[in-house]
Fold:
Amino acid sequence: MSVPFYDHAGLYLAAKDRIDGAIARVLTSGRLDWGPEVPAFEAEFGAWVGAPQVVTCGSGTAALKVALLGLGIGPGDEVITVPNTDIACSSAIRFTGASVVWADIDPASRCMCPEAAAAAVTPRTRAILAVDLYGQPADLGALRALADRHGIALVEDACLALGAEFEGRRIGSIADVTCFSFAPTKHLGAYGSGGACTTGDAALAGRMRRIAAYGQSREHHLSTFGGNGSMLNHETDGLNERLDELQAAILRVKLADLDATLARRRTQAERYAAGLAETGLDLPREVGPVRHAWRNYVIECDDRDGLRTRLAEAGIPTNTPYAPPMHLQPVHAALGFGPGSFPVAERSCARLLGLPLGPHLELDQIDEVAHAVRAAL
Ligand SMILES: Cc1ncc(COP(=O)(O)O)c(C=O)c1O
Structure:
């Protein structure tokens, strides 16, 4: 049996008729831009997440940029985030002109440690950018309280955590802005790139919507559509970071399958937990009042590289998501952080190993991986 890490073609073929129908609907409508699919997806996604406002974007990275710009963050400001995450977090902060301030993580959740974040607050801090790593929500209760205490924004990077819950509530309406990714390997994967910001603040949503769309409102653009209007009306500087009509139509199809996808991921995680229980490996678990979204199943052990090599020899693919940490990446060398700067994140990054998990896999493939892991120890 083979265990592919991803299988985009297989998942497409399983939903081919519905996907092809959505693509044909857009192409035959002639509306490739500013059409009805994006607002329809935003309404459906908002209803699913439980968020009053959804601003779709061109990617998760774009969503982070749009969120920070919408909050008015810029040169002279500081944003606190974690080192063990995607480059998108530090890049989005630096894109605004603000400075990245890293805070170390909690070893169990592998998300931002609220005490470390509190210690990193300065008079220049404007936001906390917490990451729900691998689908495990950050400690949103403590971080919300910290942000409120200092009058700063809480931005949540939920690019890996669509469908996760905190205190019984789906993430997407707890932070001031929650950012999602619709990259192909995510819970809700486009056939290209996509992302979204959700918020309960209508004024902030309006600002983010304009920033993502040339600094211009959809209403104004539509009023000039087809050459009828005479005036451009750019209210702010803007990016071209919108979701496109084709991706929105595809995501509307896939949204209908999201509950089933999440349930399948959860069952696979439970199967790994049972199959690896006696191994002595550090297994991922739900930390705090959360429901994990299981985007990744990431174990930890001291001999990570040896285990990875032996699994590769047995034909089992693995990955090392978000390692090495950001403060040790060449792009940030000028900031001067060496090994030992964020010891908890560094230890996790040196020990972590991602196992295959996802809707393309059957439970007997999960069993095969668990068996191979046991044999490789
Ligand atoms: C934690 C995190 N944030 C942001 C992103 C960026 O999302 P995108 O690839 O859609 O730009 C990713 C992508 O994997 C991610 O894992």
In short: The pocket of pyridoxal-5'-phosphate is lined by residues 59-61, 85-86, 88-89, 131, 157, 159-160, 181, 183, 193, 195 (CB under 6 Å). The CA atoms of residues 55 and 128 lie 20 Å apart. The chain has a mean pLDDT of 96.
